[in-house]
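Students often ask what a holo structure prediction actually looks like on paper. The answer is less mysterious than it sounds. You provide the chain, you provide the ligand, and the output is a string of C-alpha cells encoding the 3D arrangement of the protein together with magnesium ion.
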Amino acid sequence: MEIDSMVANSALIRAREGGGSKGRSWKWKEMLRFPHISQCMDLAMNIERDYYSLCVKQPIGKKLFELFCRSRPELQNYISLLDALEAFDSKSDEQRKEFGVSIIQRFLRSQSIQCVSVVQKHEQSCIQSLELNPFKDVFHDYLHKYLSGETFIQYQESMFFDRFLQWNWFICLQPITKHAFRQYRLLGKGGFGEVWACQVRATGMMYACKKLEKTHVKKRKGEGMALNEKQILEGLDSRFVVNLAYAYETKHALCMVLTMMSGGDLKYHIHNIGSPGLDKERVRFYAAEVCCGLIHLHQKSILYRDLKPENILLDDNGHIRISDLGLAVRLTDGQLVRGRVGTVGYMAPEVIGHKHYGMSADWWGLGCLIYEMTAGQPPLRARGEHPKPSEMERRILTEQEEYGDKFSKQVKDLCSSLLNKDPAQRLGCRGSGGTEVQSHPFFEKVNFRMLEAGLVEPPFKPDPRLVYCSDVQDIEEFSSVKGVTLDQTDSNFYSQFITGSVPITWQNEMIETGCFRELNTFGPEGSRSPDLDW
Ligand code: ADP
Ligand code: MG
Ligand code: MG
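The corresponding C-alpha cells follow.
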C-alpha cells in the first residue's frame, strides 16, 4: 500500500474512533448556540401542529414532550407507564408476556396506586390482545390517544415546546455549506461523482458525502435521476436503508450526506475475503435485514430495482443498509412500471422482457442476492465468466439456475421460489407481500420483531482498524467535463435539490453525539433559561 493511502486511512480511522465528542470543533457550542426564542416566531406560526409528528416521530420532539410530561406532577403515572413500555419493547419473546401482565397489574388495575385511568378503560382489550399476540403493543395506542388531547395543548404553551422551536431553527434556517464538514478520504466512485468520508464539525458525526458533479449531471441529463434519489431518500426512515442527513451544493457539485457505512459492501465480503461466499448464519442475517428494508420501501410504494451485493453496505457493527436509490421509483396507487432498468445479470425476467412490473422485480433481486451470498457467484454465471449482456438475458429468460452442494434444502427452496420466472408465482408476490418471504422456513429462527428494533446481534463485526474499500490511488480519478455551461434552468433545479438538513436524521445526530444532552439545559430548578425568556 502506498504511503498516501496509509495516511488517508489512518486519518479516517482516527476520526472514526473519536467520532462524537472528540471529533467536535472547539467552537462547537458557538456553532450550536440557540437563537433567542423571539427569533422563532415565524417557525411557531408555520410549524404543523400534528401530535404524531411532533411528539412521537421526531426524535428531539419526542424527548422534549417527554421532559414536559415529567415536569407535570399529574402525569407521573403516564411517564412510568411510558418507561415500562420502553422496557417492554426490548424484552425477548419469552419475557414479553410475563412483563405485559406486570404492566397490566401496575397500570391498568383500579386498585393500583399507579393506575392510568384512560388506559384502564381498555383493560379487557389490552389483556385480550396480549393473550392473542404478545408481540403486538396496544398500550401505546391508548396512551397516545390520551396524551394527544389536553396534554399536547399544554405542551405547546410550555418552554419545552419553545425549546423545540429553537432546535428547529437550526434545521430550517441554518444554511448548510461545505464549511459545516471536515473531509477525509475518498470512499468510492459513482456515476456522477465521488463519495467521500466526512465529519460534521459541530457534532463530530461521521457521514459519507455523495457528490454529483454539476457538469456531469447536465451533460448526461441526470437531473431527474438525482432529484428522484434525493427526494426518495428524504422521505424514508428505516434502519435498513441509508439515511439522508443533508443536501447542499458547492460551486461544482450537488452533495448528499448519507449514513456512513464503514464495513464495506457485500460484493467485497462475498468475493474478496477468503473463499467466495458467506457462511449460512451471515446469509440468513443479511437476507433477513434486506427483506425488512424491501418491506419498508414497498410499504412506501417504492420499488428499488437495483438489488445486488454492491449496493448492500455494512456499518461498523455489522448491520446492513440498502444504498444507491438512483433507480428507485414511486408507484402510485399500485400502478406498474415498464423499463429495462437495473444491472445486467440481476434484472428480473419481466424487466428484461419489456413487461409491466411492480414489486416482483425486487423479490427476484433478493433471490439473486441470497444465491450469490451462498454460492459465491451469481445465478446462471460460471466463476470468472463474463457473458455478453444479450447472452445473460437469454439465460435469465430461458435457463434454469443450478444449485450446488453449498445449498441446504431450505436455501435452495427459498432461492428457487424467489427466482421463479413467473412474477405471479414468485414468493413475495402471492398476495401477502414481504411477510410471505419472512415466513419461509429458512427464516424460522429469525425474530423479525427484534430484528426490526435493532436488537439482534450481527454474526460478523467489521474490524474497526480496517478500511473496507479500495486504496485511494486505486479508485479511478473522476474526469472533468468540458464545454458544458451552467445557466438559470440549472439553478432552478439546484434550488429544488439543496434543501439542507433532513429533520429526523439531524435530530438523531444531535442525540447520538450527545450534543442534545449537553445543550438542552434550562434555568435553575426547571425555570426558563435567558434564551427562552420572552
Ligand atoms: P452511484 O449511484 O453513482 O453508483 P453509489 O451510491 O453507488 O453511487 O456510490 C458509489 C460508491 O461510493 C459505492 O460503490 C461505495 O463504494 C461508496 N459509498 C456510497 N455510499 C456510501 C456510504 N453511505 N458509506 C460508505 N461508502 C459509500
Ligand atoms: Mg452504485
Ligand atoms: Mg446510483
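DSSP finds 25 helices and ten strands in the chain.
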